[in-house]
Predict the structure.
Amino acid sequence: MKLLPQRKIIKILENNGFKRARSRAHITFKKRISNKKVLTTWVLHHKMITLFVVKYIIKQTGKPKEEFY
């Protein structure tokens, strides 16, 4: 894995049903998976997102890391 452009991460999240919830220090994305459970993650306002943050997004969303290549 490597640094990824912010646009690519946002596109992956939106293609998997995540919606922008708000944009402040970070862009927050949410996805309702049942009546009681909502997945939440965030993306920094940087052109390139570090590997640490990409791994954190993968953990929060439960998506396979192969989607982020």
The chain has a mean pLDDT of 89. The first helix runs from residue 6 to 15. The helical segments are 6-15, 51-61.
